[in-house]
Amino acid sequence: MKKILLAGLAGGVLMFIWSAIAWVAIPLHTSTIGAMAHEDSVMAAMKTGMDRKMVYMFPARPTTGGDAAMDAWKKKYTQGPVGMVIYSPAGGDLTKDVLAQVGIGILDDIIVAMIAAWLLSRSTAARSGYFARVMFCGMIGVIICLFIHVFNWNWIYPADYTTGWILDTLVAWVAGGAGIAYFVKSPA
Fold first, then answer.
1. Is residue 11 part of a domain?
2. Which residues share a beta bridge with 54?
3. Is residue 146 part of a domain?
4. What angle do CA 135, 1, 19 make, to 5 degrees?
5. Can you state the angle between helices 159-183 and 130-144, rounded to 10 degrees?
6. Which residues contact residue 33 at a Cβ distance below 8 angstroms, ignoring those fewer than 6 apart?
7. CA–CA distance, 31 with 25 (Å, rounded to integer)
8. Which end of the chain lies in a sparser environment, N or C, as judged by fewer CB atoms within 10 Å?
9. Would residue 171 count as lying in a domain?
10. What's the predicted TM-score (pTM) here?
11. What angle do CA 87, 89, 93 make, to 5 degrees?
């Protein structure tokens, strides 16, 4: 159990460090997240049209109204624009919000690294060399990319945004795997 905890801590910290580099030091994500033209007027319209924290899709698919409503929605969809907004109507304390996000982020990285360490310890890869153990964790990143990022790209996310997330996820899991594989190995 001790080696799982140490592996999770090491792997999680390495994953978090990579994420910080990906978001702060290199333009991996910032180059794929754009600013809106006329931001103030768009935000004012959002305040009047969106009243709660949620994900909004537009045009919104009708839930009532029958064939006529569905036909009108299809026309709007065909004409565009089509999109999704992750929205919160309330502002916040930037420093406090970022500190909370950093805390939750590193805790999340440590927890998933512990789960990966446990999985590795139960697999035949634990008896393999260091590189194979790192790649075991890297394959977890591949599964995540296929299940989440490719899925989201298929439905709405732009290809460059998805590519950035795929690269970020793969590097994070290989980096985390380096820490996990150091601690998780079968005794010789």
1. yes
2. 87
3. yes
4. 45
5. 150
6. 161
7. 12
8. C
9. yes
10. 0.87
11. 100
Q: Token pair 């036909």 is at which residue?
A: 71
**What percent of the chain lies above the pLDDT cut of 70?**
99
Structure tokens at 145: 């990319």
Token readout for 79 is 């004409």
Strands 83-87 and 54-58: antiparallel
Torsion over CA: 44, 45, 48, 52 (sign): negative
Provide the domain count of the chain. 1
Q: What are the tokens at 115? A: 């789960």
Q: Which amino acid is at 132?
A: A
So what's the pLDDT on residue 69?
Answer: 93
- Containing structural domain, residue 129: 2-32+93-183
Residue 10, pLDDT score = 98
Q: What would the pLDDT profile of 43-60 be if each residue is shown by its tens digit?
A: 999 999 899 999 999 999
pLDDT surpasses 80 at 86: yes
Report yes or no on 61 lying in a domain.
no
Long-range contacts of 68-73 (CB under 8 A, 24+ apart): none
